[in-house]
Write a structure and sequence with these properties.
By secondary structure, the chain is α+β, with helices and mostly antiparallel strands. The chain has two domains: about 5-225, PmbA/TldD fold; about 235-435, no CATH class. About 20% of the residues lie in helices and about 35% in strands. It is built from nine helices and 17 strands. The protein has helices at about 5-20, 75-90, 125-140, 215-225, 245-255, 255-260, 320-330, 350-355, 405, and strands spanning about 25-40, 45-60, 65-70, 150-165, 170-185, 195-200, 235-240, 280-285, 305-310, 315, 340, 360-370, 375-385, 390-405, 410-415, 425, 430-435. The strands form three sheets. It has a six-stranded antiparallel β-sheet with strand order 3-2-1-4-5-6. It has a five-stranded mixed β-barrel with strand order 7-12-13-14-17. A five-stranded mixed β-sheet has the order 10-9-8-11-16, with no helix packed on it. A hairpin with a 2-residue loop joins strand 2 (about 45-60) and strand 3. Helix 3 runs parallel beside helix 4 (about 215-225). It is globular, with a radius of gyration of 25 Å.
């Protein structure tokens, strides 16, 4: 289905909804194409291809709201009946005066820059090459070490596109693509069976790193042989860049309008207040060319803006969509993040470790929980004991406990090693006085 065809269906569906009793309507026509190949024991373990398309329509009827979807969009008679029945069903719901489309002044008006978020060659990638890529990762390590128990590798890709129209004046479309390769290796020394993994991803096939992924996964697995608990105590915690999302995610969740309105945020009323150390600066930048989270408008059609989230430890904004903005009597910003960029420091991970007299480098989190209302947390971790800047031994089956409000104030160092493979572009971080529970 072409973009013009999507717009045609979306506009017709929107107009039909208005003609049949909806005061407002928003329609999204979408398509998703993806493939996944998993290899294990020199055989294809999983081969999956998915091609989906459909329509989602948000209906605002007599101060009542519903969101419905269907993948049967080729027959207008069926689609008309579907919309009419949805409008009738919406009338049975409870009223909610806060449900409306955004102020049209907040909409993206078009003519934005090309953010280069889709690979134009996506449909020309050879399916056989996808399979070869997955097998190549496995061949990097199979038979290279007697301690290997199993190797699994995977290739995946996807392309999605959508158009959105709203009855109060919005029209917009977007496209995204991704490619990824990953490997996971299990090893044993006769007792424990640690696992190591590595992945690479890219928006463009020709920029996807394809070499040494299996070797890096094996290296991480072998480094974890001999894992053990060490004594409990407070000490510095160095969090590897690929793992920083774990302590950051609860903080970003606490900035969400829904969490604030439902009193499930430990950052209620903290805008303009200090919530972290001076080293904590985070910018939400939707305009990074080929950024994984780049976009010109959000899920409501509101134009995106580059904004400071935290500046030198001071909270600058919340993530508030139209609905919660009305309920909270606050300004609507957007209900979700784009590219979160943590301002980097000047030392790479090795440099950060060199400054540690005794601490723990965390390379993985294993379960746990956090309380959104209070900020209290408890997580299982694995990683390495660090002494005099050197990795001494692998550690596992240990927990960290504390409160996020204090953890981020105890941020004492920020790395230069930003991980650019995700929409949250994060470096390694060092926190002081973290409570580790072990022996």
């Amino acid at each position: 289905m072409t973009k013009d065809e999507k717009y045609s269906i979306a506009k017709w569906a929107m107009e039909h909804a208005i003609q049949n009793g909806a005061q407002q309507a928003r329609v999204i026509i979408y398509n998703n194409n993806s493939s996944q190949i998993e290899v294990r024991n020199e055989k294809i373990d999983k081969l999956q291809e998915s091609n989906q398309s459909g329509m989602r329509i948000n209906l605002y009827v007599d101060n009542k709201y519903s969101s419905i979807s269907t993948n049967r969009i080729s027959n207008k008679e069926e689609l008309a009946k579907f919309i009419e029945e949805a409008i009738a069903g919406t009338r049975y719901l409870a009223e909610d005066e806060f449900r409306t489309l955004p102020d049209p002044d907040r909409y993206y008006k078009g003519n934005g820059p090309d953010l280069k978020t889709v690979d134009s060659k996506f449909k020309t990638v050879d399916p056989q090459q996808k399979v070869k890529d997955a097998f190549m990762l496995e061949k990097e390590v199979l038979g290279s070490d007697d301690r290997i128990i199993s190797v699994s590798t995977s290739y995946s890709d996807g392309m999605s596109g959508s158009v959105m129209v709203a009855s109060n004046g919005f029209e917009g479309d977007s496209e995204n693509s991704y490619y990824s390769l990953s490997a996971s290796v299990s090893v044993t020394d006769g007792t424990a069976r640690p696992r190591g993994g590595w992945y690479e991803s890219s928006i463009f096939s020709d920029k996807l790193i394809r070499k040494d992924i299996g070797k890096k996964a094996l290296k991480r697995a072998l480094e974890r042989l001999g894992q053990a608990k060490i004594g409990s105590g407070k000490m510095p915690m160095i969090v590897e860049n690929k793992m920083v999302g774990q302590p950051l995610r609860p903080l970003i969740s606490a900035l969400n309008g829904g969490s604030i309105q439902q009193k499930q945020s430990f950052l209620i009323g903290m805008k303009g207040e200090k919530i972290g150390s001076d080293l904590m600066t985070i910018v939400d930048d939707p305009f990074i060319v080929s950024g994984r989270g780049s976009r010109l408008f959000d899920s409501e059609g509101m134009a995106t803006e580059k904004r400071s989230v935290v500046e030198n430890g001071v909270l600058k904004t919340y993530y508030i969509d139209t609905y919660y903005a009305k309920k909270l009597e606050m300004e609507a910003t957007s209900g979700s993040t784009t590219n979160l960029v943590f301002k980097p420091g000047e030392k790479d991970l090795e440099g950060l470790l060199a400054d540690i007299d005794r601490g723990i480098l965390v390379t993985g989190f294993n379960g746990g929980n956090s309380n959104g209302a209070t900020g209290d947390f408890s997580f299982g971790i694995e990683g390495f004991l660090v002494e005099k800047g050197k990795l001494i031994q692998p550690v596992a089956e240990m927990n960290i406990t504390g409160n996020f409000k204090q953890l981020w104030k105890d941020l004492v160092a920020v790395g230069s090693d930003v991980d650019n493979t995700r929409s949250w572009q994060l470096p390694s971080l060092v926190f002081d006085n973290v409570d580790f529970s072990g022996i």
